[in-house]
């Protein structure tokens, strides 16, 4: 079996409710494999955050099972799982509470019970990867949203998780901040991290994700590569999701190959089509 194919996180018939008799997750079956870049999409309240928080055991299923590297999350603490799966909060202020950037980034590794030398090495490495080394002694509280979001990602990275779950990592960032954050996430993916990202930005899904999981009222209604997911506008409308402009263009132009939905790939397909027509 290829490394890419090994399930790292496995949901089986997972149900979850915050209140009795009001299920929020309804029979989730999902396998997340090593090296994937998954976008989790769906309307407000469809259960994305609730599902994401099951990936690292922040929440445990009401029924069904979630297995991380084959182990039932019911039997593991979040700290135990931190080296495998880490969750990055939608609002960095829910995550950041130390008085300096380096103390914040050191918090996770310290919680994992690592030695001081190992902790310092990891802090250095994570801050360098995110490009924040010069801010290590600064106080995170006064920094802009984009920088606080990056500190939150560095804190997660310092735990060296195989899977990074990001809850709306670009919300509240300006265009430049969105581009920077997505470039950073793409680099983490290239470096071997499995990425699960919740987002409402379909343009980013089309551009970066390799697989899209669509939720509606606590269920997964679609799970496929972006081009095939976005080729089902009626289905997506049920989940209050509108396909990005590029995929609508691709559909109308009859470009059906499930390539990444970027201008470049559509251009290549268009050129091929025109060549075929010219050759006839
Ligand atoms: N702590 C909580 N207590 C009670 N109900 C909750 C709690 N958190 C979420 N819910 C409810 O569970 C449902 C799913 O919420 P969840 O946050 O998982 O959805 P979501 O798809 O992430 O939404 P959004 O896109 O708005 O962030 C919603 O009806 C929400 O009101």
UniProtKB/TrEMBL annotation:
Q: How does it sit in the membrane?
A: Peripheral membrane protein
**Where the protein is mainly located, per its record?**
membrane
Q: Which residues form the ABC transporter domain?
A: 9-242
Q: Which CDD domains match?
A: ABC_cobalt_CbiO_domain1
Q: Identify the GO cellular component terms for this protein.
A: ATP-binding cassette (ABC) transporter complex
In its UniProt record, a GO molecular function of this protein is: ATP binding
Which UniProt keywords are listed?
ATP-binding, Cell membrane, Membrane, Nucleotide-binding, Translocase, Transport
Localisation: Cell membrane
- Family from the record: Belongs to the ABC transporter superfamily.
Protein name per Swiss-Prot or TrEMBL: ABC transporter ATP-binding protein
